[in-house]
Design brief:
Blueprint lengths: L4 E5 L8 E5 L4 E5 L10 E6 L8 E2 L2 E2 L3 E7 L2 E7 L6 E7 L1 E4 L6 E2 L4 E6 L5 E5 L4 E8 L5 E9 L9
Antiparallel strand pairs: 1-4, 1-7, 2-3, 2-4, 5-6, 7-8, 9-15, 10-12, 11-14, 12-13, 14-15
């Protein structure tokens, strides 16, 4: 699986790739490296995907962001507005085996990771909501520790015309 691309508004350290979001996320346009933009939309700059959690503060997205990822050979784009609440699900054990990856849709009660104890017992970390897994972070510690960032379905808005 390819590593997703993360685009963030007002990024300090960024690459040359840019995306323009117009009309509150209804129009998304990828710009060429040297292409300039002079409109009223927001410009998002590509940053390192592993820095995703730098733009999350107390479970809330601190800047507009766009994630471009591939699931099953199909490109998908998720636009997340500043102020969106994400669910953080920790998974800690002697051994942790993630079951889902970024871009996967999960249902309430769905298993996101298998947790093995030192004795060999297996438990599971489940999600309490329907949503999309946006990011999976491994936290350095003595025991294996992961955090799953999930965009709850109630935060996904489809606007009707």
């Amino acid at each position: 699986m390819k590593i997703p691309r993360l685009y963030v508004e007002n990024a300090e350290k960024h690459e040359n790739r840019k995306v323009v979001v117009e009309e509150d996320g209804k129009v998304i346009r990828f710009l060429d490296e040297e292409e300039e933009y002079c409109g009223e939309g927001k410009i998002l700059y590509q940053v390192i995907y592993d820095d995703f959690d730098n733009y999350i503060l107390m479970g809330t997205v601190s800047r507009d962001m766009l994630i471009e990822y591939e699931v099953g050979g199909i490109k998908q784009i998720t636009y997340i507005k500043k102020g969106t609440r994400l669910l953080e699900i920790p998974a800690e054990g002697y051994k942790v085996y993630p079951i889902v990856d970024f871009g996967c849709r999960v249902l309430e009660g769905h298993r996101v990771a298998a947790l093995q104890s030192k004795k060999g017992d297996v438990r599971f970390a489940n999600t309490p909501v329907n949503g999309i897994v946006l990011f999976l972070k491994e936290v350095p510690s003595k025991r294996e520790n992961y955090v799953f960032y999930i965009l709850p379905e109630k935060e996904i808005r489809f606007e009707e015309e």
